[in-house]
Amino acid sequence: MNEEDACNQCGSTDFTLEDDGRTYCANGHDQERGIATAEDDADFGRQGRLFKKKDIKSKTRISKVLRGAKAHQLYLQAWQLILWKQCYILVHQKALPPELWTVVRNLWILWLDKLEARLHDPLASFSGPDQEANQDSDSDPHATSGAETDNEEHPTVAKKDYPGPTLIDTVVLIYLSTLLLRQFLPLQTLHAWLTNSTIPYIRAIRHIPHDMRSRLPSEYHHSFDPLGIPSPDTLQLAVYRRSKMFHTYFGMETPSLNQNLLLMHYIREMALPIEVYSMARQLGRILGFTLSYHDDEENRRNVKGHPRRAATSYPEAQAISMTIVATKILFPFKPASENRHDISATTSNTMFQMNWDAWQDAKTTFDTAMHQLETINGTRLKPGSEINVTEQDVLTMTGDQLDQYMDWFQQTWTEQTASTVGAEGDQSGPNNNRQDSFRSQTSEQENVNSVDQTILNLFPLEDLDSTRKTDHASQQEQDSRLETQRTALLDQRIMEVQSSLHPLHLPPPAVAATTSNPNLSRESAHMSNESMPRPEIHQTFYAEAARIACLSEAALERAIVRTEDLVEKWRKEKIREEVMGRADELDEHEQLDTEQQAPGSET
User: Fold this and answer.
1) Would you place residue 218 in the very low, low, confident or very high pLDDT band (cuts 50, 70, 90)?
2) Which residue spans within 76-225 are E strands per DSSP?
3) Rg for the chain (alpha carbons), in Å?
4) Sign of CA dihedral 576, 581, 582, 587
5) Cα(457)–Cα(471) distance, rounded to whole angstroms?
6) Is residue 295, in this structure, part of any structural domain at all?
7) Where is the RRN7-type domain (predicted)?
8) Distance between the two ends of the chain, CA-based, in angstroms?
């Protein structure tokens, strides 16, 4: 007998199949043979196919877009690519030294070391490039100097909270590197290169390869696609804060700006007399302006203990305010109402008087001639003005201007992925890979792209890449020729202003002291716009100074007012010292007379 037919517990071989379908032995032990079932009589004679329901497996769709630390790492790589392209253009087209990229790379390595927590910790808190950009511009550039604070950097900040780079920081690192290399590069020149698209900034995302771009999250796309050129105040603030960041975290002292070259640059660009140079330098020594981002004068704190920026925190704001105040001292706009300060450097009573009407005429002539050169007698758009074109401007454009604008639009906003095709819609071009770039998309998207390609083939575009390659050398020659012509026009403007100067005979100091009103100069210096509107020449002068110094007119006026306040404070201090010195001399004379009379009284 087979042992499997016996009960495992009692050895009984007598089994019974109960109604519940289970098998039990004679002693009631369950044999655990399962439930016995019988075929249903209703299924007798069934014919046809038997269909089984398939198990639906949930398909997990893997996204191409990266998230977290990997996305931030890819963003930094794309940011570094834009930085390299900017340096390459400046070295090979703008004659900056080849060491520029070495210094920029070293600064970037220092900064990148502080971002290590974000690259390795997926859970590291990251506010995103947009929020970091908002942190960099949280202070209103048009606010008063007393309310402007810098609470962004702190020595005890956590590693994961170090500020990350934004697109404007590429330009900032380049500018700081030129300062470290002792290269004279005004910030206004760098801002002009951004406006003219000489270096990548507008739609910088188009310079990122498609493989990298497709894996970046949308917030990073927005960071690489700014809506416009940063304002001068925004650029000044970004340079100031990054210089402060490197000083706080790494102890790096940003070199001071070259005062001699910068003052001469301002005086020459504004066609001012050379006497302004010596007076501006004298004001710099008096006020303690060193044209540095780390002046001792700026180490002030507000009520919360945060560093407070003044209107002259920016070095170029110091330089231009010194130049303008020196001009107002030597050549006031209103000689009849403004008191001329006593200049100790003059050895005679003869000075020059500025003919501001001649200065205005010379500037108008210079601007008109430059506009004719830049626009080729009005047939072309001014370089860098394409981004500011409005609907009204289009109605008055010539055919060449429209072609220039459309070429700029094609280069800036369209994707150069499809080949140049004929008007008949021929798609046999060798570079026609628009469909290949969308193979990873769904079939519906592929159909849409196919329709888009068919429509695009009806409106063929010229290949601008080949045109730029052939016109690159001629463009450099044209830029060089334009710069030469601009220098000649500027020299002519300076000669016209210099020839308009005529001697002014001042009264002797003793006579001037008895007839002058000491409060008249102070009142005119702080005359508000509401009490008396500025003359046209005054407005033109301030506007040109703000443009050259890469500042807004509001920021320039605040810097001038602060500089005049410091000059007035120094003047009062000198008067107080003179008065106190004279009082001490009188006391000494009285004491000496008393001592001389004392022996005679005893006798």
Assistant:
1) confident
2) none
3) 39
4) positive
5) 26
6) no
7) 5-32
8) 163
With tokens 């703008």, the residue in question is: 94
Asked if 110 contacts 248 with a C-beta cutoff of 8 angstroms, the reply is no
**What residues make up the domain containing 389?**
373-415+434-499
In a domain, 421, yes or no: no
What does the DSSP assignment read for 521-546? HHHHHT--TTTSPPPHHHHHHHHHHH
pLDDT band at 78 (very low <50, low <70, confident <90, very high): very high
Backbone angles phi, psi at 29, to 5 degrees: -85, 130
Pair 242, 380 in one domain? no
pTM summary value: 0.74
Say how far apart CA 41 and CA 244 lie, in whole Å: 91
Give the tens place of pLDDT for each residue, 273-329. 999 999 999 999 998 899 998 764 444 544 445 556 778 889 999 999 999 999 998
Token pair recorded at residue 531: 């009490």
Measured at the CA of 201, the angle between CA 199 and CA 207, to 5 degrees, comes to 85
| Helix pair 259-269, 536-548: axis angle to 10 deg | 140
Mean pLDDT (the chain, rounded): 75
Q: Is residue 358 part of a domain?
A: no
Count the domains in the chain.
Answer: 2
Say whether both 247 and 389 belong to one domain: no
Nearest of 337, 335, 366, 367 to residue 351 by alpha carbon: 335
- What pLDDT, on a 0 to 100 scale, did the predictor assign at position 488? 93
Q: How far apart are CA 511 and CA 336, in angstroms?
A: 17
343 within a domain of the structure (yes/no) = no
562-565, Cβ contacts within 8 angstroms, sequence gap of 24 or more = 562/145, 562/310, 562/311, 562/312, 562/321, 563/283, 563/287, 563/312, 563/318, 563/321, 563/322, 563/325, 564/325, 564/525, 564/526
Tokens (6 digits) for 44:
């007798």
Listed residues 499, 529, 551: the one ending a domain: 499
Compute the distance between CA of residue 332 and CA of residue 325 in angstroms, rounded to an integer: 9
- Chain centroid, CA 196 distance in Å: 15
Please write down the long-range contacts of 506-515, taking CB distance under 8 Å and 24 or more positions apart. Answer: 506/340, 506/349, 506/350, 506/351, 507/349, 508/349, 509/342, 512/342
Distance CA 147, CA 506 (A): 43
Q: DSSP assignment of 16-56, as one string?
A: EE-TTS-EEETT--B----------GGGTT--S----PPP-
Which structure tokens are listed for 313?
């925190």
CA–CA distance, 377 with 295 (Å, rounded to integer): 47
Which residue matches tokens 């309310």? 147
Q: Where are the alpha helices (DSSP H) in 183-314?
A: 187-195, 210-213, 218-223, 232-250, 259-269, 275-287
Task: Report d(CA 332, CA 527) in Å as an integer.
Answer: 14
| Domain end call among 255, 277, 303 | 255
- Give tens-digit pLDDT for 401-460: 888 888 888 888 776 554 433 333 444 444 444 344 334 444 444 454 566 677 777 777
Q: List all residues 6 or more positions away from 332 whose beta carbon is below 8 Å from its beta carbon.
A: 338, 340
The tokens describing 562, both together, are: 């602060």
Per-position DSSP letters for 358-372, written without gaps between them: HHHHHHHHHHHHHHH
- pLDDT of the residue at 527: 41
Residue positions counted in the chain: 603
